[in-house]
Specification:
CATH architecture of the largest domain: 6 Propeller
Helix content: 10-25%
Shape: globular
Radius of gyration: 24 Å
Strand content: 25-35%
Structural class: mainly beta
Number of domains: 2
CATH topology of the largest domain: Neuraminidase
Distance between the termini: 69 Å
Number of strands: 29
CATH superfamily of the largest domain: TolB, C-terminal domain
Amino acid sequence: MTTKNFSLVVTILLIAPPSGAWAVLPERNPLSVDFTKFSWSVTLEDVVTIPNSSGGNKPRLEFLTDGGAAGLAYVIDQRGKIYSFDPVAPSPSPTLFLDLSSAVPNFNNGNQTGVRGLAFHPDFNNSGTDGFRKFYTSHSRNGFAPLIGNPEIFPSPPGLNHDSVVGEWTVNANGTVNVGSHRELMRIGQPFDDHNIGQIGFNPNSSSGNADYGKLYIALGDGGNKFPIDETDPNNLGQDLNNPHGSILRINPIASGADPYTIPTDNPFRINNDPGTSRNTIWAYGLRNPHRFSFDTAGDGAMLISDIGQANIEEVNLGAAGANYGWDAREGTFANTFTVNGNNNLIDNLPAGHATDAFTYPVAQYDHINNLLNGSVAIVGAGVYRGSAVPQLTGMYLFGDFATSSGPIFAVDVDELVQREDFTNLSNLNDGLLAPFQELRLVHNGQEKSLLQIIRDELGDQGISRTDMRFGIGPDDELYVLNKRDGVIRKFVSASGLLDGDTDRDGDVDGADFLAWQRGVGKMLPDWSDGNFDADSTADSADLALWEAGFGNSSFVVAVPEPACGWALAMLIFAASLRFRRP
């Protein structure tokens, strides 16, 4: 028996519950692979500190976005308040934009309730349009609270803990929120306090006249319950199209007559015009807790959904209309073999016929091997980096795990997030991770630290066990890192240890990097991995010059290429350079 397996057995014996509970702990590490780190690092810089919540507690920062007043970022304190600030100001100062805890009667604030999402209509700044000065929130209210307006009501399965709400608000000409304008679009009954409503948002890639323009996406969990761990989807909602839970919904939020919103004609399960028919609103389903999604604003505009797993697998999914992501029959690329009233939440290899089944499988996944003794593992998606401060990150999808002890942040080239069907040799697909993501090394105030250590040092409390990190993309297209611990908003400002010309970010500038640059020439908005090292709009001779300057160098060891290799590359460079001399 290996040391790792012996430790696992001892751990199970030590923390196994009394007789009558689980016979064994659920298996948490079906992939059995440890995370690796990039050889290079990125620097996090403090931007602004959000005021304490009412009662003096540090704010629980949930989300950051833009789309309202030009140049402003908006950040949510889950306990009710929304602030705005100018992220590029020399010393940003947060201004209270709206306090839902006072503006919404019977506001419900708990561990996974409160304010969960914020989205500005794409026509927010376009006068004369239906969406002018309108924005939307996803938040929680106590069950049976009086209606505000005429929302569609989706009842809870047995038992009612609270209601998830999508609300509309209007901003006055002076920039303040008209609290009296608030109306509820939908109320969704929640049987438990977890796995409820999450992020809401519009597709930033759609323009006026496009079918997706002005359509609001709404992330809904399966309704819980997280405890006990063997109760996977206890109300069997993930595969139920007659219930909105465990889905991504899509609506046109603008009211139409007596209807609080309208159903897009191209919704995949639409059967009539009734906003109250849940399948009409569902865009994709079979999700457990997809509380974060994002759209890449370049490339093919991919939608990426991070879905929090149960006992085994965290996953990233490509958003697709009509997709069934498999929960709770599937967890990642595994069959969920739990028994409804049994003791175990085990998973197994996919059945032989999975290639022809109805499920859409993740494009990246990981298991809980690194967190067996530190509570649940929970993924949180950020987005594809398209800022200008850190060109080395351009085209990389970032996500993190907010419940593991260190709070790792991962990155992977978005081009590696491809839809697959064949998982027969799962270990050959990046050791089962599907995509070759790695952990980012973080530097803060000149020292390499984990995010958890950064937060501990900020608060002077070494006992904090998890980060509860969140992300957001500001009006400057930069990626911001939030958390529910210290109230500080930080952003990535630079990278070090990664050489110009190193397209695959492996520490060496070599022939493979040249070939990647060559493939990137002529590509629209190429990424770092396409050879666009100066982060302009093209991969061109300027980038080739950067590669030439770095060729043969390594962030580990300076290497001299073999003569034959050098001669071949010289010929390739000469041939490529001719492309820029033609009239």
